[in-house]
Write a structure and sequence with these properties.
The chain is an all-beta fold. It contains no helices and 18 strands.
Length: about 190
Amino acid sequence: MSTLNVTNIKAADGTSGLSIANSTGIVSFGNAVSGNTPCFSATFSSPLNSQSNNTPVKVRFNNATFNQGGGNFDTSNYRFTPGVAGVYQFGTTVNMKDSGDNNNLQQQNVAIRKNNSEIFVNRIQLAAQSGDYGLQGGAYNAVLTVIGLVQMDADDYVEVWASCYNADFDLRPEYSRFYGHKLIGTV
């Protein structure tokens, strides 16, 4: 068996072709870097109870389960700043329920915002059923998921917001998460 011990392989014209970072083993091909990094995944640990009707709130993802590759998931302001420009896939799942368990929720919304502007939204509209709306408040929670691709600059940020219409609401940690990664080879 042979070992090739190099960190750079250059093209015949002298331009950079392939580089290997010694400390991480990440391989770069010109401007393209291998691996879906930066990447992160975050959750929150306690319910956020009694959020106000029809008032969007930032979902407080305060636990980064991982945060790799140069980006920064800030658990104090609940947002991700990539540190590296490129195309990213972001997703979130948010578990919400009627605060009073009285079946009054009429609409639930979850949004991923980039620099405080909505870029991806999911909404569920619940129809009235015998004076109540949609799901049985005490037994079922609507879990909404949002996923999308977006071009990010190094200093852009993304965060998750949620709201409900027609009743105060709780944000539940069960099944709630926020995650993202840079797509390989994008700038």
